[in-house]
Structure formats: C-alpha cells, structure tokens
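User: Continuing from earlier, I have the next pair ready.

Assistant: Great, send them over.

User: Here they are, in order.

Assistant: Folding the first of the pair now:
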Amino acid sequence: MLKSIYDETKARMQKCVEALTHEFSSLRTGKVSPKIIDNVKIDYFGTATPLTAVGSITTPDANTIIITPWDKSLLKEIEKAIQIANIGVNPSNNGAGVILAFAPMTQEQRKETAKHAKAMAEKAKVAARNVRQDANNKIKKLEKDKAITEDESKRAHDEAQKITDETIASIDKHLADKEASILKI
C-alpha cells in the first residue's frame, strides 16, 4: 500500500514538471517559436479551435511567424484572436496569411521573461509540495488506522521527501536551462 502512494506521488510530481515545461514553451527566447501562439484560439464554426488546426505555421527567420490558413476567410478571425491574446505583437494580413513580426528582445525584456520563468517554476514547486502534503496525509492516516507501524510511517515520510527533493531539483534544472536560453543573446 505504501508503494502505491509512492507511485502516485511520483506520477503527480512528474505531471508538475511536465506542466512547467509546457508553460516554458510559451515563453519567448532569442528566436520566436510557434509555441508562443499555442494558446491562441479562434472561433471556427462555433468551436474554439487552435491556430495549428486551421492552417500552417512557419518561422522563416528568428523574429517572424507566418500563419497561412487553409481557408482564407479566416484571416480576419486569426488577426482578431491574436490581438485579443496580447502576445506582444500586432498581426499584419497580406491577403494570403497573417504575419507576426517580433522585434528582437531587449535586455530588459529578457530579464522580465526570466523573472516570469522563475515565477512559473515557483508555482511548480508549490504544486510538488502540495503533492507531498497529500502523500504525507495518506501515510499519517495509514499509521492512525494501525495499517503501518510508526517506523514504517517515518520511512514513508522520508521517501515522500526524497521524491519531492528530486522533483524540485528537476524543476530547478529546467529553470536554469530556460533562463540560459532566455538571457543568451
């Protein structure tokens, strides 16, 4: 029964790390990434649809993203959705696609983005600690119900802490890597 608690704790903490890496992908580094517009959705026949489902997205250079919809009647909708999403650029429509021309990042923007990455990592650490708290509560309940001994409970708490420490180390490594790519000119 303790093994199932450990397995569940590891799985939930892994999801914390995966969510963080997904969030990090939306942050801009030196080169723009199509992931910046992953969360932008347009109204397509009454359904909120991601831009990747209505056209092709290309990055011809380090500062430009081009969205070419398969249905040209969506150009205005795409422009509107990007303006609403407030991703830091005004879209321009050339009749065939929507062009997002990002200015090169200034040092100040890089520092601000790095600060935002730290806040994201801190949220992930808090989520991991909450998972540890849930595991500890389950272990305490098992001890209270006399399903495990006090010594087993102590070892289980230590194991939950070890899993948490590994997860937080992983989060810190992801943060260090992301900060390095953000601050690299």
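And the other member of the pair:
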Amino acid sequence: MEIGFETHDHSICVTRGIDTVIAFCAVNGLQLTPVRRRVLEILLEQHRAMGAYEILDVLRAEDLGSQPPVVYRALDFLIKNGFAHKIERVNAFTACTHVGQDHAPAFLICTKCDAVVETQSELSKDVLSKAAKGTGFAIERVVIEAEGKCPKCQGSSS
C-alpha cells in the first residue's frame, strides 16, 4: 500500500501498521513490548519525521518512560526489524510502510511541514552492490532521501 501526501484516515494507517507488525513478530518470534508498540503507533499517527526527544515527550506524558534510553531502545528494535526507518538528513524517525518486504526505500521529505512519504526506489542495494564490487566496497545499507514541498505546502506558498 502506497501512502502519499493525500488526506486520508490515519487510524487506518495505525491499525494496518500495528496489525502487520504484530503478525510479523508472531511469525518471527519477536517481542513487541508496550513501549515498542507505542513508539510505532506514534510514528504511524504522525506521518512525519520525528526526533527521539519528541517521541520521548509523548512517552513521558503517558507515563511510559522519561529517560532517553527508553525511546532509543524501542527505536533500535523497530529499525533493526524493518518497522521504522531513520531519516538521516533530519536525524529523525518514521514508520515503515512496507513491513516484511525486501525494499529499497526512498523518502520524500517536506521541508515546510516535515511530512514524510516512503516510496519504493528502483535503485536497490543489489544494483549498487554490483557497481561497488569492483572497488572492493561492501554496501551495508542504502538510504535515498529527497527534500522538497508536499502538495499542501506548495499550495500554501503561492
């Protein structure tokens, strides 16, 4: 399912995202703790890049943790298992919209409202690995990020 910048029901995103992750965890013997689940829900609800301390503020308000290691451990789990991604350019995190799929994500980041859309990239780790092989370089991870203005922010700036 491709989720773009269009207006849609976020509750469906959250429900589908959580259900997909619960099923993946059950099949793969992973433990989705309440804090991990809540961090994922926060990311799914927001549809934008969020900093760790911004997520921590929500957890703190809900009495789910007040120390940075709480959110960083949850984010590490989510990223390691493909449930979330780190947006390097803005040092923030977003939920994965392609859980369980082998994919090369590309992120479209609105520089005005911070909305983030994950889309598929034709440029895969395998393609780059073949190109890098001749140099002796071993690619471990590929991150593609593009910055610009989402349709809503383009309309508001004119």
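Worth noting for the second one:
Residues 10-156 form a domain with the Arc Repressor Mutant, subunit A fold (CATH 1.10.10.10). The chain is about 45% helix and 15% strand.
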